Structures are given as structure tokens and as C-alpha cells.
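Try this one yourself first.
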């Protein structure tokens, strides 16, 4: 039987007029269960105009921040802290301002200087982490690129010296395109919930190579797997340009990839190995697909993977699910893939405004009791919460084969 998804009747969070860092958009939230209580903690993406950094002749910059919220009633209501961001980009422009101290005490390039977008929270070897898609410099009002005629504001705040710098420097090469690089932070949940934001996040480093491809929807399986005879970390990611990666010609469009490496530092290098997990197949996936939030273990070496797809500006972003199974000394592979789009924008407040594209984009999923609770971005401007009976969802996905065909149907 098809599972029934239930949604809040109104946004869980929305932009706050007059809040300089969150008065335009509040969206794409990550969630995590509190191990010491029944609370749910959230990090959400937010933006607003930042005129204090405006350059003459340019639009206001729109740096992207992370905010914090908490629910004590299973996700029905949320208490958000709009007094200040939980994590903010540094917004430096001079060369000496573009460094940060990493988790090892080393001064390194700060790929999170301009934006911190689309968080995902997960445990990895019992440590809590968060990934964010980052830009070296903030864009202007980036939604204008979706209007007609389009207005490109991505490069308005990339300094001239970047284009004159060392073209072999990976940071310089990435900054010239101002594409996203996914960055890993260690997250101290106790400090986050006490709102000690300055010490809650520790910069680990980049996980993707921006000069190879814009890359986001990045997070990990919670435990290492044996691949090519070695215990390795396993990461999901979605490169925009798939051609530099194995299977890219087959995939053709932005797709879900796996990456394996023996250390976290190796992922943003040639030491990582990559494997295509899934590429667009169904009509509603025509433009791209990407994994949505960290996998949930089903036991017996199987994992539930939520994923999103985009068809076009009319159908927009929708959600479905697949189940992957670990293989002996190899990357996991898909064993069940639901060919139906199970979640999509329907409610009035999920419909597009500044963006022309309908969007329901899940970025968090946790199991509480019998329910899977999911947090999502709606219309790229608000936060929604959905829930479904977990075992009913898994049973339904199992009715489909790896090719998306449902048992008993041609």
C-alpha cells in the first residue's frame, strides 16, 4: 500500500521581516535528534541583503548563513533563534582575509568565506558533523538568474585580484567561477543547543574540488566500508559536471555519485575514488538527481537513501527513495528504486514566488518512534515538515526493482 505523507498546514519557519540575515529566504533545513531528550535540533539556510558590504555599481550582496531552531514536540512547532546566525561566512575580500584555522590548528584557505548553504547533519564514527555547500564570495540577488531576461549576479563580489592570481591554485581556480565547494565541519551539539555558536563549529576542510565541478548534496554513510581491500569512508555527492567522473558519459546529467577515501582530507583530491550510483532515468528526473539527506540503516547491510529530482521549471523539484545494499569489497549498489515521485509541492506556500520552479527539497530525515520526520525547503523560501510511517515507506520502496519496475507490473 502506498504510504501516506502528512504535512504541516503552514510553514514551520519563514523569513523574518527586518532580520538582516534572514528576511528574504529561510529554507533547506537539516535536523538531528537530541540523544539526551526527545528534542529535535535544526540548522536552516537563510539570507537577506547585506548592504554593509555593497560595492559601488553592484546589487546588494546576499551572503548565506545558517540559523538554529529547536522543536520539543516532535517537529510540530519550532523555536528559532533569529537574534544572530549560528554559522556565518567570513566575507573577506583581501587575500590575507581568506584563511581559517582548521580542526588541527592549521591555517588553511577558507572555502566558506562567501556562503554556507544547504546543511546536512550526520554522525560519522560517533562524531557529529555538518556539511555545507560553500562559495568563496557571496553573490548578489542570485534568484534573478531564473527570471526573464536573466540577470547574472554570481561574480559581482569576486575581487579583481582573483582573476590576476595564480591560475594553478585550486582556491583561485574555484573562486574564478564562484562555484560551490562542499565543506565539512565538526559540530558540538551541546554548544549548539546552548547557543554557544562561536565554539559549536570546527572547520575540517573541503570535501569536493570546485575547479573540477560545482558539487553539493554531500554527506556520509555513518561507518566505514571495505572497498578495494581497504576500510574507507564513503560519501555521497552530486557533481554538476559529471564528465570528469567515472561513468559521466553514461550519466550525462547531474547524478548521484559515491566517493571513497581512507581519510577525510583525501576526498578533495585525486586520492578519492568515485562510482556512479544512480543517474536520471524517469521522466520527472529529466534535468538532474541528487541524494537528499544521510542514509538510514535498515539492517542486513541495506540503507534507505532519499533523493530529489528536477524535471524542468514547470514540474520542479520532487522527492523519492531508493534502497542500496553493501557489496563485498566494493561500492554499494541500488537494489530498489521507487519510480514514483512520492513528495512534491502542492500547498499554496510551497508554490514559487521569486523562483519560477515549484520546489519541495528535503534536507533532513530522522526516525522518531514509528515515524520518519523530514525537514524540507519549500519554494526556496520557507521551511516545511513532513512525516510518514517509516516501515510502510520502506515496504513500499521494496516493491520496486533496481530498475524502478514495480513487482507484478510490466
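Now uncover the answer:
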Amino acid at each position: 500500500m502506498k504510504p501516506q505523507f502528512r504535512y504541516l498546514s503552514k510553514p514551520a519557519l519563514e523569513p523574518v521581516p527586518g532580520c538582516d540575515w534572514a528576511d528574504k529566504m529561510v529554507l533547506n533545513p537539516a535536523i538531528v535528534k537530541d540523544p539526551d531528550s526527545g528534542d529535535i535540533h535544526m540548522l536552516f539556510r537563510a539570507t537577506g541583503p547585506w548592504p554593509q558590504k555593497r560595492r559601488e555599481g553592484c546589487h546588494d550582496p546576499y551572503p548565506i548563513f545558517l540559523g538554529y531552531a529547536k522543536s520539543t514536540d516532535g517537529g510540530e512547532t519550532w523555536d528559532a533563534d533569529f537574534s544572530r546566525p549560528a554559522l556565518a561566512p567570513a566575507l573577506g575580500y583581501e587575500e590575507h582575509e581568506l584563511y581559517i584555522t582548521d580542526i588541527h590548528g592549521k591555517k588553511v584557505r577558507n572555502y566558506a568565506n562567501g556562503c554556507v548553504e544547504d546543511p546536512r547533519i550526520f554522525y560519522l564514527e560517533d562524531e557529529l558533523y555538518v556539511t555545507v555547500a560553500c562559495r568563496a564570495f557571496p553573490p548578489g540577488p542570485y534568484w534573478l538568474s531564473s527570471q526573464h531576461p536573466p540577470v547574472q549576479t554570481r561574480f559581482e563580489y569576486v575581487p579583481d585580484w582573483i582573476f590576476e592570481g595564480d591560475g594553478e591554485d585550486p582556491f583561485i581556480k574555484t573562486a574564478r567561477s564562484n562555484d560551490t565547494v562542499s565543506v565539512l565541519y565538526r559540530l558540538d551539539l551541546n554548544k549548539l543547543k546552548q547557543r554557544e555558536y562561536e565554539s559549536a563549529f570546527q572547520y575540517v576542510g573541503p570535501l569536493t574540488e570546485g575547479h573540477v565541478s560545482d558539487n553539493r548534496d554531500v554527506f556520509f554513510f555513518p561507518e566505514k566500508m571495505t572497498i578495494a581491500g581497504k576500510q574507507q569512508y564513503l560519501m555521497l555527492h552530486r557533481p554538476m559536471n559529471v564528465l570528469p567522473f567515472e561513468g559521466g558519459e553514461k550519466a550525462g546529467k547531474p547524478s548521484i555519485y559515491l566517493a571513497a577515501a581512507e581519510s577525510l582530507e583525501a576526498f578533495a583530491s585525486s586520492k578519492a575514488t568515485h562510482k556512479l550510483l544512480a543517474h536520471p532515468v524517469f521522466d520527472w528526473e529529466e534535468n538532474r538527481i541528487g541524494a537528499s539527506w544521510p542514509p538510514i540503516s535498515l539492517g542486513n547491510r541495506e540503507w534507505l537513501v532519499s533523493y530529489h529530482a528536477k524535471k524542468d521549471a514547470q514540474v520542479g523539484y520532487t522527492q523519492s527513495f531508493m534502497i542500496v545494499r553493501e557489496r563485498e569489497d566494493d561500492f554499494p549498489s541500488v537494489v530498489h528504486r521507487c519510480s514514483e515521485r512520492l513528495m512534491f509541492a502542492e500547498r499554496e506556500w510551497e508554490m514559487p514566488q521569486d523562483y519560477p520552479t515549484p520546489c519541495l527539497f528535503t534536507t533532513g530525515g530522522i526516525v522518531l518512534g514509528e515515524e520518519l520526520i523530514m525537514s524540507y525547503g519549500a519554494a526556496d523560501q520557507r521551511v516545511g515538515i513532513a512525516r510518514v510511517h517509516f516501515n510502510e515507506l520502506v515496504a513500499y520502496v521494496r516493491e520496486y526493482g533496481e530498475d524502478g519496475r514495480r513487482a507484478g507490473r510490466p
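Discussion: The chain has a mean pLDDT of 95. Residues 236 and 258 are 5 Å apart (CA to CA).
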